Amino acid sequence: MPLLGSAEAAVVTRSDASPLGVSSAVPTLTFPARVGAWIGALVELRGVAAEVPTASVALDETADGRLATVIWPDGVRTASRLFSSDPAMAADR
Amino acid sequence: MREQPRRHVATSASVLTDRASWTGYADRLLAGARAYASPNHARITPSGAEGGYGNAVDGLEGFARTFLLAGFRLMGERGEGLGDLADFYAEGIRAGVDPAAPDRWVRLDEHPQAKVEAASLALILDQTRPWIWDRLDALTRQRVIDYFAPVVGDTSYPRNNWLWFRIVVQTFLRSVGGPWSPDDIAADLALHDSFVRADGWLADGDERAYDHYVGWALHLYPVLWSRMGAAELAAGRTEGDVAALDRFLQDAVELVGADGSPLLQGRSLIYRFAAAAPFWVGAFAEVPSVPLGLLRHAAGAIVGHFADHGVPGDDGLLSLGWHGPWRPLAQSYSGPASPYWASKGLLGVALPADHPVWAAPEVPLPVAQREVLRAIAAPGWLVSGTPGDGIVRVVNHGTDHAMPGAAPGDSPLYTQLGYSTATSPLLDEEAWTTPLEQTVALVTADGRASHRAGMELLGVRVDEAPDAAGASVGVAGSLARTHLLEPGPIGRRHGSGLDGVATPLGTLEVHSLVRGPWEVRLARLASLEPGVEASELQLRVGGWAVSAGQTDRDGDAAQGAPHAPVVASSPPPSCRCSAAPRRPS
């Protein structure tokens, strides 16, 4: 069972769409749209060789606020509280 | 998406350090442009397709924007040894304001672009007074005053950085006994102050327009203006302007890639190394928090980045493009001399050889030394820089060149979730109608993607590591009433997304957790508009747009000139966008 949704991966290419090169490629993930469901993705931009990254995220909405626990590709584990989606409640903006 | 690992360690080989390398580069640009001067020197019109405002405006731009650079050279040498340069431009001024001259300048009451160029003319006439203005004949001086005079009381200036064009010109007029209006200047300063945001940032207008104009215009002019004998007009505000600049530069210096590349974000990227200007302004103002050696290095890295990539071209000219020519990067009205606003990035040559900036010990860019993780409140950005590859990334939840709650199209230059020093947003026509890279978008069955402009910034912060063994994480989020857009007629583009008829689809919240090269992106479709069915939609996450087969565009594509490799030894970065793996059940 996917952690934060199941998705189809694709790469979209464009020609002459960037000042940096004649061909551009954009990786995409396409999820079903479901109201109230969370989806998650790891997005990476790096310039040095590395293994294909793996990561995981767990979202606890029962805590005070929404706590996202991430195990990053380098194995580090962090826990971060997401901002409230009620703009009036969002702190530290 | 998996790509063969490639190496893209971003370092600049050509950081300009000693003053001679800077003046040499400036003189090369001046010489390249000078070859395209009209017989009386009043217009400089480099080769290339005519701009959207016509040939006469192109020629005025060429004069005014290279006059900036010529003026910086004269200032830095205190006029010594540059008599030919001063004479060349003085002759151009005489013809420019001569109504009978065939190459006279387009007047301010003939075309609004002349208001932009007038500021450069006035600034340099002021700062080079002993070597040009004082040597002009009385008739020419009066004609210059008459040329600038329509600025007084002109209320048609756009509500953005143009306010400084009116201030600078009127301040010069005041200094030479011309007409000016203290009310105009007071109103413009008040407008500037209305653009002030947290931590030394300013918006370039009423919208959430955060881009390079913050540095190369909204911080540049207050400091240079303070040198125009405007102490009375400034009424003690300069100290505050410098304090804001000082704070801004602490963020700005972390936005430069280790290879010197500025962020590819925001409009007017054809001005290229104008992005170096705020660092020189910091040196002028002698800001307290960023060392002179870092300011000089940052500016040198930026100009060096473009020099490394063949700028200017073999013809000595700045083309409409980034590294090489690429016309879509320019606005429709841009002409062949428009890129010469880049001159601002060479402001440092106005600092004389005995200025301490030239002797200050070199200080490397932050991203060359350590991981960078920073939250910038005003634009709603998380900044992440990695020393291993020198790339600086920005995750964006607060900038869209729109007003909160509005529903224009997404501008690819402003509204995407991410920008970096190693990638460019897609900028073809489709990019303005169908957001793709660095988005979370609802996609209809027929392939239309939703826009998020007008989104609400929920917040941006860095959770610092609790201890040495922990890790800091950037956290940001935004809430968008996503909408489809049926674009209206496309007019002139000034950075904003397209106008048109918006059809709301639903409310989407997006959150980013950022560390190093990674972003964990979380999204939730909070609700759908009445009548919109989830079954008819998909939710698409787009990653970074990576350019393959990077080339320098060694000729204007429109002219069909050939392209040639320029970064063969520095291939593009890799980008992956993968679903989070399954949690063990």
UniProtKB/TrEMBL annotation, chain B:
<feature type="compositionally biased region" description="Low complexity">
    <location>
        <begin position="561"/>
        <end position="585"/>
    </location>
</feature>
<feature type="domain" description="DUF2264">
    <location>
        <begin position="18"/>
        <end position="364"/>
    </location>
</feature>
<dbReference type="InterPro" id="IPR016624">
    <property type="entry name" value="UCP014753"/>
</dbReference>
<dbReference type="InterPro" id="IPR049349">
    <property type="entry name" value="DUF2264_N"/>
</dbReference>
<protein>
    <recommendedName>
        <fullName>DUF2264 domain-containing protein</fullName>
    </recommendedName>
</protein>
<dbReference type="Pfam" id="PF10022">
    <property type="entry name" value="DUF2264"/>
</dbReference>
<feature type="region of interest" description="Disordered">
    <location>
        <begin position="548"/>
        <end position="585"/>
    </location>
</feature>
